[in-house]
């Protein structure tokens, strides 16, 4: 995967995402974040919109024949259902964290082909950490995941083998902590289970790079929240899957809302699927 760092597509995507991050940070460091409410009552800021415009222009230049579906420019299903390949973008994942100014937000860009995320880029503007994953050798890019820091430091990343303590990523703003009975199930084999709250796609990226082990999400997300990190996680040897263990697929339905999911590796996945089986009275499907 190291050869990816000189590939023109990788370099172009890095340039796009760095330019979007600069725009976000200029607003983040100012007095007015330009917060407004969207029709669904979710917040949007001037940074969301500025990053969207930069990413949209950059992707249209990079791949003019591939359409873009962004959180800030939703396309009707009757149009996008005809797209066999598309870019799926969240210009600012973690808008609530951005508004709180806690630094835990990201930029997500995914390439989706026939519903499958085959490439993902996630960038954390406040820490200058970037993650890049390829699950299918598209445009001669090698399969695998890497992390970069700043301008020059690159390293391949992969999931770690489960060990003490098991680190569970939990959501900073959404949903409860790790369920007590799931935690007890894990503690039968791993005495220590530590919870680490974070916002946005940072949670999945920390698992992909081997810092954490598991994340259980119950509550609403959208396709642009998960596609990029799914590609990175899968390319690093992990999974982002439904309660039944099926990978998410994208742009296949009129709704862009996800169901419940979890992120981990194959060794810990049975703990979570067993937990879900014991809670089948809840609506746990992606549909």
Care to describe what's here?
By secondary structure, the chain is α+β, with helices and mostly antiparallel strands. The chain folds into two domains: 2-156, Fructose-1,6-Bisphosphatase, subunit A, domain 1 (Fructose-1,6-Bisphosphatase, Chain A, domain 1, 2-Layer Sandwich), CATH 3.30.540.10; 166-277, D-Maltodextrin-Binding Protein, domain 2 (3-Layer(aba) Sandwich). Helices cover 30% and strands 26% of the residues. The protein has helices at 8-28, 46-62, 77-80, 95-100, 180-187, 202-208, 223-235, 269-277; strands at 36-37, 43-44, 68-70, 85-93, 106-113, 116-124, 129-134, 144-149, 153-156, 166-171, 193-198, 214-217, 221-222, 239-241, 257-258, 261-264. It holds the Pfam family Inositol_P.
Sum this structure up briefly.
It is found in: Cell inner membrane. Belongs to the inositol monophosphatase superfamily. CysQ family. This protein has 287 residues and is an alpha+beta fold.
The number of distinct helices, counting runs of at least 4 residues, comes to 8
Number of strands: 16
Poorly predicted runs of 5 or more residues: 283-287
Alpha-carbon distance between the two ends: 35 Å
Strand order, biggest sheet?
3-4-5-6-7-8-9
So what's the CATH class of the largest domain? Alpha Beta
Helix content estimate: 25-40%
Pfam families: Inositol_P (PF00459)
Main location: membrane
Protein name: 3'(2'),5'-bisphosphate nucleotidase CysQ
Cofactor: Mg(2+)
Q: Which short descriptors sum up this protein?
A:
five-stranded mixed sheet, alpha+beta, Fructose-1,6-Bisphosphatase, Chain A, domain 1, disordered C terminus, 8 helices, 16 strands, 287 residues, D-Maltodextrin-Binding Protein, domain 2, 2 domains
């Amino acid at each position: 995967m190291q050869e990816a760092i000189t590939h023109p597509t990788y370099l172009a995507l890095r340039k796009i995402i760095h330019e979007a991050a600069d725009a976000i940070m200029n607003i983040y460091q100012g007095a007015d974040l330009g917060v407004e409410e969207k029709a669904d009552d979710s917040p949007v800021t001037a940074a969301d919109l500025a990053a969207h415009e930069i990413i949209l222009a950059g992707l249209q230049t990079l791949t003019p024949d591939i359409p873009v579906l962004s959180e800030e420019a939703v396309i009707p299903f009757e149009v996008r259902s005809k797209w066999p390949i598309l870019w799926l973008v969240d210009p600012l994942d973690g808008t609530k964290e951005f508004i709180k100014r806690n630094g835990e937000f990201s930029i997500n860009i995914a390439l989706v082909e026939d519903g499958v995320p085959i490439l993902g880029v996630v960038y954390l503007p406040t820490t200058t950490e970037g993650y890049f994953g390829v699950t299918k050798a598209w445009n001669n890019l090698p399969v695998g995941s890497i992390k970069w820091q700043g301008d020059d430091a690159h390293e391949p990343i992969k999931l770690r083998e489960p060990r003490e303590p098991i680190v569970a990523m939990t959501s900073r703003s959404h949903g409860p902590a790790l369920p007590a009975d799931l935690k007890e199930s894990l503690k039968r084999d791993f005495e220590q289970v530590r919870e680490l709250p974070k916002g946005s796609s940072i949670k999945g990226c920390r698992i992909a790079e081997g810092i954490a082990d598991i994340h259980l999400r119950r509550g609403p997300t959208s396709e642009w929240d998960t596609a990029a990190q799914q590609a990175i996680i899968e390319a690093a040897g992990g999974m982002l899957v439904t309660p039944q263990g099926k990978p998410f697929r994208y742009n296949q339905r009129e709704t862009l809302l996800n169901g419940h999911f979890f992120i981990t590796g194959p060794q810990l996945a049975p703990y979570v699927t067993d937990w879900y089986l014991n809670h089948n009275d809840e609506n746990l499907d992606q549909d």
